[in-house]
Records
---
Amino acid sequence: MKAPTPGTTDALPAAAGSSPLVARLLYGPTGIGTHSLRFAPALQPVPAPPAVPEPPHALHAPQPPEQPEPQAPSTPSSSSQRIEGLYCPPAVRDDRALADEVNARLVEWAEKEVGLYPETELRDALVGFDAGRSVVLCHPDAVGIDHLMAAARLLIGENAVDDYFCEAEYGGTADRRGAALAVAQSAIDPAHNIPRYEADWRAGLDSHPALRSMRSAMDYFEALATPAQAHRFRHDIANLYLGYNAEGDCISRERTPTVWEYLVQRQFNNFRPCLTLTDSVGGYELPAHLFADPRVQRAVTLSSNASTICNDLYSLRKEQASGRFHYSLPTVIAAEEDCSIEDAFQKAIEVHNDIVHLFEEQAAELSATNPLVARFVAGLANWMSGNHEWHAGNVGTRYATSP
Ligand SMILES: CC(C)=CCC/C(C)=C(\C)COP(=O)(O)OP(=O)(O)O
């Protein structure tokens, strides 16, 4: 989500009250709530996962989203909002009422607990972003609304870090991005130090809405995830910030990378952290040794990459309209192959579709190995499909379909 900025933000968080810039960020509702800045609880035994996972119970009867049958590549779409030929199986649940409830709770959290996006227009942007529908579509096997909220808060926090520390129009600057992202990582991976510096660190986190949001979102997540799942998430977010830095480096130099380098970058600057919490939201755990299996990692990476390239395609027109230097899979293909952006867009669709097929092959192989792994890869597929549906449905507010 691109939030209008409440003024130029200093990317490096400072102790509360130490800078007028920080003070500007603190206007409006403040107070971090009781969940924020709490240290991770003491290590506790990991509850053993059930041998066979409990069947997911939907909060509401599953309602397939209104959409045409999954489309074969190159088949024209009946909906102008869909990218023609972009292959993805349909999402299995859509529920507007549930999404609205998640959005309402998100606004309450943002306003009352973390002081994020405090102005009316910013609240509207938060609702317009429709994180509620995203998590409802992407996690059809969620245990309940608390689990959906855990995913939604993290999604908002990740976007807030991107908005405030990385996006030029919201205050991110190249010379401070790396330092700001290291501090942002500490919002989910606490600093351990002598009391004096821990206190300074806490004040530093408390001084910035994006940091408060990530800290609070992580607290909620840790309350329902196992320590191994929380650890997995921290690792994925560190990689995400590596990707944010790579993108920022190219943008500040206005350098268009080669296609292979771009794909490497995008594998880090990626929706992966949203996909890999599918088991936490579903109320079960894929044990660390199974998660680490290279075949599972391949399935995670392919589904995450497809989801992120889907974003590149749906975002292209918006990014072109911004007038700022940007790059994405279509633009790097156009540069490397010296072709039109329209041709490059089609080639990017093919890359996306081939990745989805590779994921499906890997998922089919894995699903035969173990019921927990089967459920996990089904969760990855659900996320990929829900994300596709969310992007296609968010055209009016955020995305446009073709160059
Ligand atoms: C929510 C999350 C983990 C995001 C990480 C990666 C990311 C910011 C995207 C995949 C979105 O890409 P982009 O920065 O290009 O954003 P929009 O196109 O403006 O949606």
Note: The radius of gyration is 20 Å.
---
Amino acid sequence: MSDARPLLEVHDVHKAYGRHRVLRGVDMELRAGRLAGVVGENGSGKSTLLRILAGRLRPDRGVVKGPGRIGYCPQETVLNPAFTVEQHLELFRVAYGLPGLDRAHELLETLHFADYRRHRIGTLSGGTQQKLNLVLALMHDPPLLLLDEPYQGFDWEAYQRFWELAGQLRAVGRSCLVVTHIAYDTSRFDDLWRLDAGRLVDDARRGG
Ligand SMILES: Nc1ncnc2c1ncn2[C@@H]1O[C@H](COP(=O)(O)OP(=O)(O)OP(=O)(O)O)[C@@H](O)[C@H]1O
């Protein structure tokens, strides 16, 4: 596959809530096989931007061109507390039109929570629910993943496993865009932007 065209192109995106102008001309290009980060203070508009990129929110102005299939992992989990992990996988399998759950089960192993397959969501810790949230966004193997604070609630081991998984995805040409207010570990990203005053600026503090 040619790498010439960006996987995601964002041009001059604006969004206001009433008079509160949150995004004021966001530009971005993301290529295949990249691990990208957007950092910014609480309330700077990171989740708003991600919702727009995921097609969940309409911008007031501007253009977003992305792949047809996107994996979106919102900050708040969208899980039903009465259903088990496996029932969630089955629901999403049908929604995505997948023939089976091999990839989903592989992801449970990678994130180390296969033992919870028959557990109801209401009995799981916040970190384990977040792992399922990630698997649901990933199980149809989309070329682009939009992850909003994906390691929220993770312990150190889960955090390491998340980055291993992100590395594996990058190696096979998938791209991840991670939104976080935690600005450490930024050397892990190939591309890093800071959302500041409604615009994305290249973050010069990135290491590596
Ligand atoms: N639906 C909404 N209606 C009105 N204001 C909103 C709405 N959603 C977000 N906002 C406001 O827009 C601003 C940006 O919110 P957003 O959640 O995008 O920021 P964020 O950078 O993701 O914050 P955090 O790091 O706290 O998650 C905030 O001031 C927020 O209060």
Note: The longest strand covers residues 20-30.
---
Amino acid sequence: MTATKGLEGIVATTSSISSIIDGVLTYRGIDIDDLAEHASFEEVVYLLWYGKLPNKSELEQLHADLSASAPVADSVIQQLKLYPKNTNSMAALRSAVSALALYDEEANDMSPAANLRKAIRLQAQLPTIVAAFARIREGKEPIAPKAGVSVSYNFLYMLTGNDPEPIAVEALDKALVLHADHELNASTFAARVTVATLSDIYSGVTSAIGALKGPLHGGANEAVMAMLEEIGTSSDVEAYINNKLANKEKIMGFGHRVYKNGDPRAKHLQKMSRELGKITNNMNWYDMSIKIEELVTGQKGLKPNVDFYSASVYTSLEIPRDLFTPIFAISRVSGWTAHILEQYENNRLIRPRAEYTGPVNQKYVPIESR
Ligand SMILES: CC(=O)SCCNC(=O)CCNC(=O)[C@H](O)C(C)(C)COP(=O)(O)OP(=O)(O)OC[C@H]1O[C@@H](n2cnc3c(N)ncnc32)[C@H](O)[C@@H]1OP(=O)(O)O
Ligand SMILES: O=C([O-])CC(=O)C(=O)O
């Protein structure tokens, strides 16, 4: 038995949800470029869950269901108020999502219909939790979700209490479309491993949030912004990046386990970053990002991944840096739940093997002889 480090190249499941073939990302067979251009986030959520684009009435029903499910149990909001004010935002989200299960009477109902209802509640309630957490830690009251608006609109509204600008809603919506699913990435795999024991959907999503939090995965978008802030201006980019590369340090937001010729989502986010920079009259983050890309791609051949330009996009939308990864979760919960439902449909326990590298032929030594 020989281990493959990081399971690179191992095909661990079949799935009909999303694919990356020859560098092309599709959701249910539709190219991400097509979806980024034309689809709303809710259409993508429907596509991931049901395997087809919704017609008008199906989409209206999904909007209505998400709207009706967006309010979060008051007990969970009260718990958020008890978290230390400096709690890591992904730790808060992980804990609150785990707590949602305690107040859901269907939490352990494993029927497909109940699991779909829980997927809707999870999709609807993650934005409410993230926005409530962001306000509570600033000493403000959470804002109740608004009925009849999109997930993107509602999230921005609940964050600030103001009706967001259409351009901001459009930008966030496109970012959510781009982040919704990604084959067997680490957090989706974590979700599938958890529910393959026939554990519940809340346990699966809680595992996934824990996996997304790390800086090698979803946490990279916050690390990118921390880097941009640390560098400060375009004129300091070259020295900073050269020094990092000389020290063999990783540049966050670059590289990918699967894409070696570039992440197809990055160009959409780069374009959004430029457009939002122009609109907000602050091209600094975009200009720095372009310079970093030139240096890292030029010297290492590494291309930006989805996390790189999303950092400057969210900053232009005036979203605090430590909400970037929770926003990733707000989008990716659509993919996680689609994969969880698919796992339940055709389940088998996921239990690989380890190549043992420890000592052999050891004997128990009585404690007085050690
Ligand atoms: C949504 C997402 O999860 S997208 C990924 C987000 N993560 C990041 O942006 C973090 C930075 N990137 C990375 O750490 C990696 O590229 C990963 C984790 C994304 C992929 O990792 P792996 O497939 O395991 O590649 P691995 O880390 O082994 O890198 C291969 C080589 O490229 C180098 N490399 C990979 N990424 C980077 C980077 N961002 N900066 C500098 N060097 C890098 C590694 O140091 C390694 O070099 P070596 O062979 O000389 O040791
Ligand atoms: O697929 C991966 O390994 C990481 C990624 O880009 C994602 O989850 O969107």
Note: The radius of gyration is 21 Å.
